[in-house]
Amino acid sequence: MEIAPILTCGSKAIKPKSPFAKSNLRFLTLFLLLACFCQVGCVSLRSPAQVTGENSWNREKDVVEFSIGLNGPMSADEYLEWTQQHLEKNQLATKNPGFPEIPVYEVRYYFFSRERSFRGYLGTVLWRRAVGPTGNLEHVTTIVQRGF
Amino acid sequence: MPHRIWLCWLIFMGSGCSVVYDHRLESSGGVLFSNHPQEVTAPYMNRLSWASEGIRQQLPLSTERVRPVTVFLSGTPADSGTVIRRYQTGFAGWYSSLLNSIWLSGDPDDDGTSILLKSESLETFQHELAHHMTSNIDGIQRRWWLVEGIACFFEGGFDPGDGGFSIPPIHLKFYEKCRRELRRRGRQQFLNDLEETVQGNYRSFYSTDSELLYRYALSWALFWHLAETVPAESDLESRIRAISKLTDDQVLAESESLLDRLRKSTTERLREHLMNPELRRWAVDGMLTRYRINGNDLLEVLKLDLEASSDPIWAWCSVSKLLGSRGIRLTSSIRQEWIGRFNSFMTEATPRQKITICEAIIPGSRSFLLTDSIVDCLESTDPDLRVVAAKTLASISRQKTIVSPHFWANGDPDLRSLEVQSWRDYLQD
Fold it and tell me: What is the pLDDT of residue B309?
């Protein structure tokens, strides 16, 4: 049975000649299809983690801490992105929830999972005000305990 | 081909490191390359000069041909906005005799402070530096227990108070580890472990299993024991040379007598040296890490140090640690008396002295007894002292405060006064 050329380079088709090359091509086809399927499959399986709970308190007058419950771990970038959106949404750069007259110096986010599959601490994201009177809150560190 | 590699390495060392790293610092002990800020590199530069010179004085002949070392202080600088994965190694250090260099790497901790600033990291640096300074001693090459035993021995080197370099009578961590493992495993297993450590090759010795620290402790204990018992001249260098000439069988023949020397508890060992002016500070520092210690005796020793020393800061830092420690017992009248003495010293101390003391205070509610003096520091004219005092207060009190360094260094004086007043009101209540 003739194997149809599956790899093309521009308009020129590459047609395998030897039986060994033909069987290799068959394997390659299967491999590529499998790789594509895995990639799509994994992406569809890995839905973004959902926030299941949120708690906040002032550790100091100008240090605010948030405990965030998740249904699973996130990547380091996702933790950072989530906290950035949370900071902007709650206007923490200008508003201190516990002591309105004092500007926030530091914001700490602690992420936890309370799911059956994994319970415990996932990571921390630390934001701190930059030096100077008009300094913005800047990302200091993201500490990932579990994740990918 | 090897010449080309060496040439590339030399070019890289000569110029490349400066391209990769932001800072190039030089001292008599060597060169340090780093991306970390000055507050992180300064303790390493001081340790490099002090420990190199100290080991050189202990081993003048063996260190004669030792060249300055190149130190790479690597890892993620604090406040750099990067990701730290806790399941990866946070701190590491090693020495390469081939490249004549020490490499140390440290990430920031949960507070965004570099792990390189912790005293354990500086001890590791001293350990690696000891490897470098002792790398020319004949007879230690490829005898890994001896290589590590000597480095662990010098790792404990401390300043007795005059800027010198003294070797302590025991290495607290390794002495404790040996005693614990001896109790847990029994005499025979401990002797078997000693034999395995002495006869182990590179792969078995440095295998990164849970026993690596134990092998270091065994190596230190053997070397420490032999350094005391080997028949040789009185100086340390001659004794090290005599030990390096011993065969493995001769070394292991001393194992039984080592077990006898491990009988005394760590606290007993420390107490023996409390009255020795040269070892007093080492003994007190060690006692402060123990539990269920009689603090009244320690305060008497500190009183002696205050009378004898021209620099009272070490003693007052120790007093503050002692008053704030949960493991130390004090009678309440003596506690009150020393809180009074501490407060009166703090009224006379310079801002620099106050900063050192504030930084030494143990975080926790026990140190709350010292709050009055620290609140006074919030009104200092020195902005650095105000910043440090606010940080210390936050670590010892449940009373919420403002910790922003900008607020305490350059903030509105009226707002600062308001915050100080809120502390005074809280203390009065």
Answer: 85
pTM for the structure as a whole: 0.82
Q: What is the pLDDT of residue B10?
A: 52
From chain B, pick out residues whose CB is under 8 angstroms from the CB of A76.
Answer: 83, 85
Domain boundaries, chain A: 8-45, 51-144
Give the whole-angstrom CA distance, residue B279 versus residue B270. 9
Pairing mode of beta strands A137-144, B82-85 = parallel
Residue A14, pLDDT score: 42
Q: In order of start, what are the domains of chain B with their CATH numbers?
A: 23-136 (3.40.30), 172-263 (no CATH), 276-428 (no CATH)
Could you tell me how far CA B34 lies from the centroid of its own chain?
A: 20
* Block mean pLDDT (10 aa), chain A, length 148: 37 47 63 58 58 91 95 89 95 93 95 81 92 79 75
Residue range A74-96, pLDDT digits in tens: 888 999 999 999 999 999 999 99
What is the per-residue pLDDT for A43? Answer: 46
Q: Other CB atoms closer than 10 Å to residue B195's CB: what's the count?
A: 15
Task: Name the H helices within B102-235.
Answer: 119-133, 144-155, 172-185, 187-199, 202-205, 212-229
* Contact assignment for B81 to A129 by CB distance below 8 Å: no
Name which of A76, A105, A141 is nearest B403 (Cβ-Cβ): A105
d(CA B294, CA B301): 12
What CA–CA distance (Å, rounded) separates B218 from B193?
Answer: 8
Cβ contact, residue pair A105, B86, below 8 Å: no
Contact A143 B110 (CB under 8 A): yes
- Provide the pLDDT for residue A7: 37
A3, two tokens: 């194997």
Q: From chain A, which residues contact B within 8 Å (Cβ)? A: 58-63, 76, 102-103, 105-106, 124, 126, 128-129, 131-133, 135, 138-146
To test the contact with chain B by mutation, choose from A57, A59, A60, A75 the residue with the greatest count of B C-beta atoms within 10 A, namely A60
CA angle in degrees (0–180, nearest 5) for B266-B271-B272: 100
For chain A, the first-to-last Cα distance in angstroms comes to 46
User: Which of B 52-111 lie inside 8 A of A, CB atoms?
Assistant: 78-87, 108, 110-111
Backbone angles phi, psi at B74, to 5 degrees: -100, -165
Contact state of B84 with A144 under an 8 Å Cβ cutoff: yes
Angstrom distance (rounded) from CA B364 to CA B393: 10
Please tell me the distance in Å from A52's CA to the nearest CA on chain B.
Answer: 24
- The interface pTM score, or ipTM, of the predicted complex is 0.80
Residue-level pLDDT at B210: 84
- Which stretches of chain B drop beneath a pLDDT of 70? 1-19, 79-80, 86-90, 232-233
Chain B nearest-CA residue for A109: B110
Spatial CA neighbour of B338 closest among B356, B315, B360: B315
Query: Looking at residue A5, what is its pLDDT?
Result: 38
Nearest to A139 among B81, B86, B404 (CB): B81
